[in-house]
Design brief:
Radius of gyration: 19 Å
Number of helices: 9
Structural class: alpha/beta
Shape: globular
Number of strands: 12
Helix content: 25-40%
Strand content: 15-25%
Order of helices and strands: EEHEHEHEHEEHEEHEEHEHH
């Protein structure tokens, strides 16, 4: 779990967000700005960590008292090649940090690092990923933990949803886009699997809290409430007029071995007792309104 080096929230001199051009990184920049923290977003245009000069480019942008958020990634990492690409990015960042060490480092990871049979999942669950995506994040966590000597924190979000999410993985983002195109929402089987989903804004707000407290350790960005894909599909369908149709699709493979996955959020409640996650139904309604406003 997290331990706070600052009991009272204290603004860092500056927060640099490495990977600020992406969905998660840009939201963290937005939430830092809303909180009144000085922030500097770094995108691939400013420091391409996969280029020969990526480490030097990043080094030139850093200041000694910066707090750094590392969120830059090729995600999801679906194969070994993509996993290695992500590790090379961290290798370049570590070289830059060796020259200009941040005062605090926050890495945005994933709940995919945990073993499949962890249920309920806590911050103390075994890190034993079963996918290349999970292994990529676990390896990056280890690289930072062993090579960076300052205060280090890891934030591990579960399934994220948001209006600007570029991915259309199975769940809220795909369901909303299907309905918006006038297509039926397709769920596998009866959609009985239960999963936790977190709003991207809540991930950003947790990142702000961690940076303000210069926290050390790991925290899961999860709501503690698991909802079936069946119920999520019907929540989204109800936002359209007339309501979108929800249909059952054949499963592409066997039913998941772990039908439901739950999280225990005790560590989050202890770290930030007044933090409140946005309820899923309210969040889906808000995201629908935001997405419709963008069309």
């Amino acid at each position: 779990m997290l331990t706070h080096q600052h009991v009272t929230p204290t603004a860092p001199e500056r927060v640099v967000v490495i990977g600020a051009g992406g969905f998660v990184g840009s939201t963290i920049v937005k939430e830092l700005t809303k909180a009144g923290l000085p922030v500097f977003g770094i995108t691939r245009k400013q420091a391409d960590l996969l280029s020969a000069g990526g480490a030097d480019a990043l080094k030139a942008l850093l200041k000694p008292h910066d707090a750094a958020v590392f969120v830059s990634a090729v995600a999801p990492a679906k194969n070994a090649a993509q996993m290695m690409t992500n590790l090379r990015m961290v290798e370049a960042a570590i070289a830059a940090f060796a020259a200009v060490p941040p005062a605090h480092l926050l890495y945005i990871s994933s709940d995919a690092v945990y073993a499949d049979d962890a249920n309920p999942v806590t911050e103390h669950s075994h890190v034993a990923p079963s996918t290349t995506h999970g292994m990529m994040h676990a390896a990056r966590e280890l690289m930072f933990r062993t090579e960076y000597n300052g205060p280090f924190a890891v934030l591990r979000p579960t399934l994220i949803y948001g209006a600007r999410d570029p991915h259309s993985g199975y769940g809220p983002n795909r369901f909303r886009r299907q309905a918006a195109k006038g297509e039926p929402i397709g769920i596998f089987g009866e959609g009985e699997e239960k999963r936790d989903h977190v709003a991207i804004e809540d991930v950003g707000r947790l990142a702000v809290r961690i940076l303000q407290h210069r926290s050390v350790g790991a925290l899961n960005a999860v709501t503690g409430v698991a909802t079936s894909f069946h119920d999520i599909a019907h929540m989204i369908a109800a936002e359209f007029s007339p309501p979108a149709k929800v249909i059952s699709l054949p499963r592409p493979g066997p039913r998941p071995h772990l039908l439901h996955r739950f999280f225990d959020i005790t560590c989050c409640l202890k770290a930030f007792p007044d933090f409140q996650f946005e309820p899923l139904e309210k969040g889906l309604r808000r995201v629908h309104s935001e997405a419709m406003a963008q069309t």
